[in-house]
Every structure is written in structure tokens, then in C-alpha cells.
Specification:
By secondary structure, the chain is an alpha+beta fold. It is built from 5 helices and 5 strands.
Length: 105
């Protein structure tokens, strides 16, 4: 069975109760927390375990990592710590250059 968060938004209490591994109490909690925006919202429901959700075809979505930039010293730094100098075009830590010359990545 393949379900997703949109299916849980459309289902009624009786439809949710018919799903394998979901009882009346958990179905009440699901209906109370509708509407859902992502699959991860379903993992927040008390009594609805990750094994039950996997059997229904719902996987937890991983958060996207912020982009990282490899500096010439061989160390990766997060892009929010760096800026490009408008005059020279060089990329460096934003606190090392004047504000008027910063162009954030």
C-alpha cells in the first residue's frame, strides 16, 4: 500500500480506522492534526510509529543541507559564512570585507 500525506488529508475517521496498524485513538489524533503539509508531519503523531508508516509506504524525508563551499585551504565552509568581493571577485569570509563590497553567496 502506497500512501502519502495528501491521502491522510482526504481520508475521514472511518477510512483511517480501516488502515492496518491504526486504531481508533490514533485515528482520532490523525483527524485532529489535519491538514498535513509533508510526510514528516505524520511522524509527529503520538502512537503512530515509523514501522506502521513504512508499511503504508511513507518514508521520512531528510532535510536539505545548506550548501557548502570548499575554500583553497581545503576546508569546507557553509555558504552563509562567505561573500564575494564586488571589486576583486574573490570569495572570502564576509566579516573580512567592508559591507559595501559584499555580495552574499
Amino acid at each position: 500500500m502506497q500512501l502519502n500525506w495528501e491521502d491522510f488529508n482526504e481520508m475521514s475517521y472511518t477510512g483511517i480506522c480501516k488502515l492496518p496498524g491504526i486504531g481508533k485513538k490514533v485515528a482520532e489524533r490523525i483527524v485532529a492534526m489535519q491538514p498535513f503539509r509533508t510526510n514528516n508531519d505524520l511522524f509527529k503523531i503520538k502512537g503512530l510509529g515509523s514501522n506502521t508508516l513504512r508499511k503504508l509506504g511513507i518514508e521520512k524525508q531528510k532535510k536539505e543541507r545548506k550548501s557548502w563551499y570548499l575554500m583553497p585551504d581545503g576546508i569546507e565552509y557553509p555558504s552563509y559564512a562567505l561573500a564575494k568581493n564586488n571589486l576583486t571577485g574573490q570569495i572570502d569570509f564576509f566579516w573580512r570585507m567592508p559591507r559595501e563590497r559584499r555580495e552574499y553567496l
